[in-house]
Design goal:
The structure is a single chain. By secondary structure, the protein is mostly helical. It folds into 2 domains: 2-37; 62-279, MetI-like (MetI-like fold, Orthogonal Bundle), CATH 1.10.3720.10. It is built from 12 helices and no strands. The mean pLDDT is 81.
């Protein structure tokens, strides 16, 4: 028994050591970014990987916040991503109900075609979309980003929502129908509340996937009206090309909202993805 307990303890120590090393490797770039964002640009050329700034230059964040148009771009990012999340959730629930509950000949084919979208990179449609948007006058509008963000998030949303919806007992919906509920009321009042885990997972994944997207935003948008938060980083590379510390500060501000969101909702992400994959 002692040998088994000893092996078990040694195994645990080795496992935790490996996990800590991996965690440090993963977190080091973020720690390095935060460290040099409160330093001076001259500190960049020191020999150490990390430094202790003397003094701390918190004014770097003030410059990043003001000169980087942080509030405007943050508002645009929040608005576009929130609308994308709401549309993806609404459409995903409707499509999942149609594919798992409504019996029609092409339901399997339609579901398969939509799920194939997970294999197509979002930037593969960059140029075709630009030609179409330019002809119908959608460039430099909120729709130029909202349409592709929703379209490329729907396959993942449908995949996760279908997995959860198949676990909802059909008898509940049949009872609601007997009580006089129509199909839309059944979806909104009966089915949707039972898909809470799926809705949270889809919302978080959609938000995280689209938050830092920059290629489409830089292609479709020209005026600052609808520019999103990653544009702050681009503008600072020209405005403060030699002031690296301020550039790091704006990068930290850009990454902060999504990092905080992931830390708070990490449990829901892993739980929802695991449950959706098993049930799907």
């Amino acid at each position: 028994m002692e040998k088994i307990a000893k092996k078990f303890t040694i195994g645990k120590v080795v496992l935790w050591t490996i996990l800590i090393i991996v965690a440090v490797i993963q977190l080091f770039p973020l720690i390095w970014l935060l460290d040099f964002s409160v330093a001076s640009s001259n500190d960049m050329f020191t020999s150490g990987l990390l430094i202790w700034p003397e003094p701390f230059h918190f004014d770097n964040y003030v410059k990043a916040f003001v000169d980087g148009h942080f509030l405007l771009y943050f508002k645009n990012s929040m608005l576009i991503n929130t609308l994308a999340v709401l549309l993806v959730i609404t459409i995903s629930i409707g499509m999942a109900f149609a594919c798992t509950r409504m019996h029609w000949k092409l339901s399997g084919l339609v579901k398969g075609l939509i799920l194939l979208g997970m294999m197509i990179p979002i930037h593969a449609t960059l140029l075709p979309n630009y030609v179409i948007y330019d002809k119908i006058g959608l460039t430099d509008t909120i729709w130029a980003l909202l349409i592709p963000y929703v379209a490329f998030s729907l396959p993942q949303g449908l995949f996760l929502t279908c997995g959860f919806m198949e676990s909802v007992p059909k008898e509940i919906e049949e009872a609601a129908m007997i009580d006089g509920c129509g199909i839309y009321r059944i979806i909104i009042v009966v089915v949707a509340p039972m898909l809470k885990s799926s809705v949270v997972t889809v919302a978080i994944m959609t938000f995280l996937n689209n938050w830092n997207e920059f290629m489409m935003a830089s292609t479709y948008l020209s005026s600052p009206t609808w520019k999103t938060l990653p544009f702050s980083v681009l503008e600072f590379t020209g405005l403060y090309s030699s002031n690296y510390a301020v550039q790091f500060a704006v990068m930290a501000l850009t990454a902060a909202p999504v990092v905080i969101l992931y830390i708070i909702l990490n449990k829901h992400i892993t739980k929802g993805v695991a449950m959706g994959a098993v049930k799907g």
